[in-house]
Amino acid sequence: MNLPESSRLQFTPDLNICRVLNGMWQVSGGHGKIDRQAAIENMFKYLDAGFTTWDLADHYGPAEDFIGEFRRQLISTRGKDALSNLQAFTKWVPRPGKMTRKLVEENIDISLRRMNVESLDLMQFHWWEYKDENYLAALKYMTELQQEGKIKHLALTNFDTEHLKIILDNNIKIVSNQVQFSLVDLRPLVNMVELCRQHDIKLFTYGTLCGGLLSEKYLGKPEPRGGELATASLRKYKNMVDNWGGWKLFQELLNALKQIADKHQVSIANVAVRTILDLPAVGGVIVGARLGVSEHLEDNARVFNFSLDAEDEAQIDAVIRNSRDLYKLIGDCGDEYRR
Prior knowledge:
The protein is of the alpha/beta class. It has twelve helices and ten strands. The protein has a domain of 231 residues: TIM Barrel, CATH 3.20.20. The strands form two sheets. Strands 3-4-5-6-7-8-9-10 form an eight-stranded parallel beta barrel, surrounded by four helices. Strands 1-2 form a two-stranded antiparallel ribbon. Strand 7, helix 5 and strand 8 form a beta-alpha-beta unit.
């Protein structure tokens, strides 16, 4: 499988990435048991197929350790040069409180050791409590570590527009923000996208497939109840669908996406991802990788084989117009984590 050139983004001068990122949150629990050996073997398949970019976090169970072991096996079997085609983006999610240089560096060093790297490609920072302004201190210490070579690029995850602007006003260079963004959740279009365009910041989006709800599997099916939603992601995004407009309207969306998918000979998931990829400021969409459990490499690759036309977009918009305004209900990007 060879992905087309359109699958790549020159994200930073030194990082050329795949625009469909492999999300590793599914190794953190709540998505079924993950076999370490099978997972690492699966990572080679992703890399060889062109899906070279991984999204992980310090709290995604063994995700950072998987990257470290994958790098070791990659060097062992293919040599150090093979690492040049691998990008791994992690996160640091500290508890709010006083931030010292020592505390920040110790946590960065943990990720460096676990991932078996000398410098982190991208450190995506999350902060739970905006009233605690120590997040600015943490980012300033991370900027110092970046200057010393321990971090290549600084980024955020689930920051809202107001606080992203505060960070930028403090002369802290941010290259991306990771946010929930899907056909069900278009909140980033309200304010976030424009600020990112102004400052050349990319958005990496998650929840774009609503944990798998945006697929043929749920088309024409009765509304699933608690026990039928087998993963943490499905339960989370079913709640989002309920807020957005409910199961009946969601079925209308799935029907519209199915018609578009059939027209282009792709899947509902492909259409859902392509739509978000085409929006301003979006650098990439993160699709969960159930390593060693199931893979969707061939289906994910089809995202880059078609384009949506004006008729497709109008068909989707006709459904979305009937949905509730999640920005008014929930707030800006990430506010669902701080309510």
